[in-house]
Amino acid sequence: MQPVFARTNTFNRFVKTLNKHMDIIANYFNARNNSGFVEGFNNKVKVLKRRCYGLSNVTRLFQRLMLDLTGFERFNPAMA
């Protein structure tokens, strides 16, 4: 794709960026892969860190993370 230069500098910058990342953009439309799962997991960890502020034991933090990710059914079969 050849860059099309316009009178506005903003559009020229957009075209240059588009040309620079064209392979990556095309790969997304071909495979439809994204990092949604990883972003969601990171968000859950950040929310948990805010909720557990002041928790001094790292083991408890990981236990709480496991509880939030797997649900209460794993630890209390009566709820299943």
UniProtKB/TrEMBL annotation:
<dbReference type="InterPro" id="IPR047951">
    <property type="entry name" value="Transpos_ISL3"/>
</dbReference>
<dbReference type="Pfam" id="PF01610">
    <property type="entry name" value="DDE_Tnp_ISL3"/>
</dbReference>
<protein>
    <submittedName>
        <fullName>Transposase and inactivated derivatives</fullName>
    </submittedName>
</protein>
<feature type="domain" description="Transposase IS204/IS1001/IS1096/IS1165 DDE">
    <location>
        <begin position="8"/>
        <end position="64"/>
    </location>
</feature>
<dbReference type="InterPro" id="IPR002560">
    <property type="entry name" value="Transposase_DDE"/>
</dbReference>
